[in-house]
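anyone seen this seq b4? input:
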Amino acid sequence: MSSAEAKAARRAKFEGVFEKIRDELVDHFSAQGMPAEAIDWYRNSLNYNVPGGKLNRGMSVVDTVEILKGRALTDDEYFKAAILGWCVELLQAYFLVADDMMDSSITRRGQPCWYRVSEVGLIAINDSFMLEGAIYRLLKVHFRSESYYADLLDVFHETTYQTEMGQLVDLITAPENKVDLSKFSLERHRLIVIYKTAFYSFYLPVACAMLVSQIPETYSVPSGSGTSTVKPYDLALSILLPLGEYFQIQDDFLDFSGTPEQIGKIGTDIVDNKCSWVVNTAISLASPQQRKVLDENYGRKDGEKEKVVKALFEELGIRSVYAEYEERVVGDLRKKIDEIVEVEGGLRREVFQSFLGKIYKRSK
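predicted toks r here
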């Protein structure tokens, strides 16, 4: 089997679990005495909003459990890991349905945003709540008897709250219809990225995998002539948050530098007034005259003004600044990963090497 075929088989197996949990959620909904019209609506919402996309977050839960256990998973282990993966994807779906309404977006994953589908409209607000509610139904049914059930509830609630904090800061910093670059800074960008993306896209899947693999809160590792105590969840966080920040900065850079053929979309961060790493880096490097050019041209729905901004980014050497940043941050991450002391039943360097390997030097 080629690597492409193996990847497709992995995805198909993971998607097979979605069909089971979707039917379970719809059956539970139906058992409450809900009318046929509402049952069809709920099923359509789940099918439309959850299984599309790359599924990287969800499948990384399964991949991480396999790495932590160091072997192929039993059917029951796979099913439990995949349920947690789909809980992460349900959280993503909840965020995206709501986010598309806040941003007045037109399409998502190659189809109209859910709120723009005929007859849906503002009902999408309640649909987003139900997508989030489905997470806790699944956790209750499949994990309530587990010793780590409260920890799962805690990490989903905490991560959801953190993501909503980041979303608020992003919305008030960079509204699409009001450009004010005085609100922008690399520090503000970092705060938005860590809270809006890194916690739920990077830490949450790994924390779920660690919990279902029953990685303890602390354990001892050999150190010099004695032992030292490791807090594996804090250690994972200290690697995954910078990794998530690097991923988003890379995304921001590709929006500016990548071609539509390469990244699969037309970059719109400049015209959409996004608080991206690229413009924040430009602000930090710009002379007063260059800053004036940015103030007059950034965030405008005008192709000519977009070209002016892109030319200024080139003039400021954004490509070389990014290349230097990438090598520095990847070097720091590799050092942190290499310092992990591996013991039976603890963290594995491969968990983080796997994430980094998928991201480093990506071009789309």
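Strands lie at 107-108, 111-112, 219-223, 226-230. The first helix runs from residue 3 to 31. kinda curious what u guys think
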